[in-house]
Amino acid sequence: MTLKCVKCESKFPYLPSLGRCENCGRTLEYDLGLPKKGKIKFSGRFSFWRYKILLPPARHQISLGEGGTPLHKALRLAKSLDLQKLYLKDETRNPTNSYRDRAAALYVSNAVDLKHNTLVCASNGNLGASLAAYCAKAGLNCHLIVPKLVDIGKLAQMLVYDATIEEFGEILDDSIGKAEALAKEMNWYQATAELNPLAIEAQKTISYEVYEQLGVPDYFIVPMGSGGTIYSIWKGFKELKQLKITNSLPKMVGVQPEGSPSIVKILVEGRSQILKISKPSTHALAILVSQPLQGDFAIKAIKESDGLALTVSDQEIFSAELQIAKLEGMFAEPASSATVAALKKLVETGKIDERNSVVCLISGSGLKATDVLHALTKKQKTAKVGLELSTKEKILRILSEKDTYGYELWKKLAKTMTRGAIYQHLNELSEKGLITSYVKNRKRFFKIMERGRKVLRAMDDLKLLF
Ligand SMILES: [Zn+2]
């Protein structure tokens, strides 16, 4: 087994794991030297370590129960897209709720094998959260370099698992440089995904699992940040083919947010250099990068598989997230939802149709990315409870001052709605026993009841809380 440069093909010993090629500075990859003959047999229960025969050796196995995640047949989502065979690989079911637990298990096992006490990683979220947990399990110090923009739920995980957190830079690209320098200076174990190719090996187990659960799909859709994840999955399927376990391969589809499109641009515009996007922006923070260090890998996966790459807007990501939740009962993080947003586009343009089988990688849980939660609660409040309540509340407040008749009420509400609508509200308030009415000087006056006053007081209390 050796480490091989993805660009100049220089070879290095597989340990200690190098971050970059010493000749050209590009990323390295493990070459396992697969057996040419004889059948490989996976053994043990359906989990990450079942595939250890195709992973770099780990004498210690630090495990929290990673891998072995479900592949859901998404019937309702498929129907809404006019598809028949759509599957979601549910990586939210890992111990810290993202696919990065696979990489963390292998990194921390490797760090223990090499007798390191401290591990360093630049991460904008999921990997940092995973490593913090696995380091806790193994009793290692976990030093995380995080950029300013991190999903708050992931930060909470890092904190609770007791990692040391150092904020450095605006986005992930800045933090990676810092982690690279620190590992050298302190002789810490390097566990940054972009600088240690063990992550690729760990994540290829996703393909082995999908193969055992379904076989080889026609399309596999993966969110792209630095570009390593899509390559891991491609590598997994390629190995299964080399081992003659299967003879087909999926087409790999890579998705990036419109505001962070570096890899897609290279492919669409036929550029040769990895592009640097000067001010990348998206709410899908897990795939926010300026210059993807493993872009070479992603491009290789997409080209070799005859696949494709596309971008989706944050709005498309957000609606896909709601659709996955509403139709399949799964709460995916924005980066993961980008796969379904992309699928929708590919169906609309006729690139994928009902004959195709498709797997979308749901890489992490939506509970980790709380900006979406904020947007949702705001939406719920204004769309459902908020507006409706506010008119009824206004009526109650006016009536709590003095008894009022309909026309006067309408004027006091600044004539913002029809008088019919106001009478509708008044009827509903009466039915609930919050107000009553009486006739005086041939006008119908409305009057707040004790129950109505209680409701107003309760609302004031609630407002103090929020
Ligand atoms: Zn090289």
Task: Please provide a written account of the structure.
The protein is of the alpha/beta class. Among the domains are: 1-31, no CATH class; 71-93 and 200-372, Rossmann fold (3-Layer(aba) Sandwich), CATH 3.40.50; 384-465, Winged helix-like DNA-binding domain superfamily/Winged helix DNA-binding domain (Arc Repressor Mutant, subunit A, Orthogonal Bundle), CATH 1.10.10.10. It is built from 16 helices and 16 strands. Helix 7 (205-213) crosses helix 8. The longest helix has 32 residues, at 370-401. The chain is elongated, with a radius of gyration of 28 Å. 46% of the residues are buried. Zinc ion binds next to loops.
Task: Summarize the SSE layout with pairings.
Blueprint: E1 2-5, E2 11-13, E3 28-31, E4 71-73, H1 75-80, E5 85-90, H2 100-113, E6 118-122, H3 126-138, E7 141-146, H4 152-160, E8 164-167, H5 172-186, E9 189-190, H6 198-203, H7 205-213, E10 219-223, H8 228-242, E11 251-257, H9 262-269, H10 295-304, E12 308-312, H11 314-328, H12 334-348, E13 357-362, H13 370-401, E14 404-405, H14 406-412, H15 419-431, E15 435-440, E16 443-448, H16 450-465
Parallel strand pairs: 5-13, 6-7, 6-9, 7-8, 10-11, 10-13, 11-12
Antiparallel strand pairs: 1-2, 1-3, 4-5, 14-16, 15-16
Task: Briefly characterize the structure.
With 466 residues, the protein is of the alpha/beta class.
Biggest sheet details? 6 strands, mixed
CATH C-level class of the domain at 71-93 and 200-372: Alpha Beta
Radius of gyration: 28 Å
| Global outline | elongated
Query: What is the CATH topology classification name of the domain at 71-93 and 200-372?
Result: Rossmann fold
Instruction: State the low-pLDDT regions, or none.
Output: 381-387
**Secondary structure tally, helices:** 16
Task: Please state the average pLDDT score.
Answer: 90
Tell me how many strands there are. 16
Spell out which ligands are present: zinc ion
* Strand ordering within the main sheet: 4-5-13-10-11-12
> How many angstroms does the end-to-end distance come to?
58 Å
**Share of helix among residues?**
40-55%
If classified by CATH, what would the architecture of the domain at 71-93 and 200-372 be? Answer: 3-Layer(aba) Sandwich
Structural class, from secondary structure content?
A: alpha/beta
**Proportion of beta-strand residues:** 15-25%
